[in-house]
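Re: that backbone. C-alpha cells:
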C-alpha cells in the first residue's frame, strides 16, 4: 500500500553500517481532503516523535510501510518465520533485531520518503490504531508513558480539568496551532504538500 521515490534504495542503504540491523524511513499519507490531511499531520507528528525517542532512548518500533532490514540481521533472527504470530510483525521484527544487539535507525529525510494511502473512514482508522497499540505491550514503561502523554496532549487536558473549560479549550487550540505549524515545517523538510486543513489555516 506504499510507493517510494527513485532515491529510496540508496538513501536507506546509506544509513547502514556493521552495527545497523534496520532502518525506518518516514511516510507521507496521500492527502486529497481535510480527512486525509489530518491523517497525514498525525502520521508525520508521530514519526517525528519516534525519531526523537529513537535517538535518545533507542528503537521503539518498526514502520512496516517504510523499513529496510539488513540480510545479516534478518538471518540472525531467522526471519519472520522465527517470530511468534503478531498483528504487528514489523514491531516484533524490530524488537527481535534489537534483542540480537543490532542498532535500528530512524531516518528522517526526503530521499527516504514513502507515500501511503489513507484510511477511508473513522472505523478503519480506529481499527488500525488499536492493532498498533496491541503490538507495543512489550515496550519499557518509560517509553509507554512518553508515547501516551505526547499522544493525547496531556497538558491541555490538565488545564481543562484543573482550571476551567474555557482555559482548557484555549490550551487545546494553542496545541492544535503548534501541531499544524510543526506539520508545515516537516512538510518543508520532506518536500511534501501541506494539504486540506493546513492550507485553510495558513
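Recovered sequence:
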Amino acid at each position: 500500500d506504499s510507493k517510494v521515490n527513485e532515491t529510496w534504495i540508496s538513501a536507506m542503504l546509506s544509513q547502514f553500517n556493521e552495527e545497523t540491523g534496520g532502518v525506518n524511513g518516514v511516510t507521507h499519507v496521500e492527502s486529497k481532503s481535510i480527512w486525509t490531511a489530518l491523517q497525514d499531520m498525525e502520521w508525520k507528528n508521530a514519526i517525528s516523535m519516534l525519531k526523537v525517542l529513537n535517538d535518545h532512548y533507542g528503537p521503539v518500533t518498526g514502520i512496516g510501510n517504510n523499513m529496510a532490514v539488513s540480510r545479516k540481521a534478518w538471518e540472525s533472527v531467522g526471519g519472520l518465520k522465527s517470530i511468534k504470530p503478531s498483528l504487528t510483525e514489523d514491531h516484533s521484527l524490530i524488537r527481535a533485531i534489537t534483542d540480537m544487539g543490532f542498532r535500528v535507525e530512524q531516518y528522517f529525510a526526503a530521499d527516504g520518503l514513502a507515500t501511503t494511502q489513507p484510511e477511508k473512514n473513522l472505523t478503519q482508522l480506529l481499527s488500525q490504531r488499536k492493532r498498533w497499540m496491541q503490538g507495543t505491550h512489550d515496550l519499557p514503561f518509560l517509553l509507554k508513558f512518553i508515547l501516551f502523554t505526547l499522544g493525547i496532549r496531556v497538558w491541555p487536558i490538565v488545564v481543562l480539568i484543573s482550571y476551567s473549560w474555557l482555559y482548557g479549550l484555549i490550551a487545546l487550540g494553542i496545541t492544535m496551532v503548534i501541531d499544524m505549524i510543526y506539520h508545515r515545517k516537516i512538510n518543508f523538510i520532506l518536500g511534501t504538500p501541506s494539504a486540506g486543513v493546513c492550507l485553510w489555516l495558513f
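Confidence is low (pLDDT under 50) at residues 195-202. The radius of gyration is 18 Å.
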